[in-house]
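Narrative summary of target 7.
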Amino acid sequence: MEDMSDKPRLTVLAGPTAVGKGTVSTYIRDHYPEVWLSVSATTREPRPGEQDGVHYFFVSSDEFDRLVSTGDMLEWAVVHGRNRYGTLRRTVERAMADGKSVLLEIDLQGARQVKESMPDATFVFLAPPSWDEMVRRLVGRGTETPEEQQQRLETAKLELAAEPEFDFTVVNDDVQRAADEIVSLMGLLPHPR
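Modeled conformation, tokenized:
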């Protein structure tokens, strides 16, 4: 039997809007240097404190079109009917070729695309502790207008229904605990009890 522990692993982390995917993946980036966290490209404007190449690759709409047309996107999607997000194929393939454990923090549409092209990946659904907590987090961010918040909550209802498509569910009730559980699912820590 082949030992899978030496093989580079691809783990896809997805979940509904405002569930805290970014917060959990930032915690993993800051506390688990052995995890290579993919940086997505996006056409949206940076939020306060976000840095190009660290949080996202901020690209123009024309550049994003070029990346899609040349097949340089592993996955991409229009999110909330406005901006596009995607994962650069070459960065993921290079990290895996270097033997790194790769974490993709992406939206549900992107996770489905990766499942088509890389079905051996591990797919983790990040779930909120409750609907009310997810609403509180979204409103508390203060980064969207009330109309945008309402649109995101409608999207979140559909996204929550996708949970059965994933290999594992991790509840984001505590950022450190959720991050530790994801890293353990990647095979890098003993599974938490």
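Residues 1-5 have pLDDT under 50 and may be disordered.
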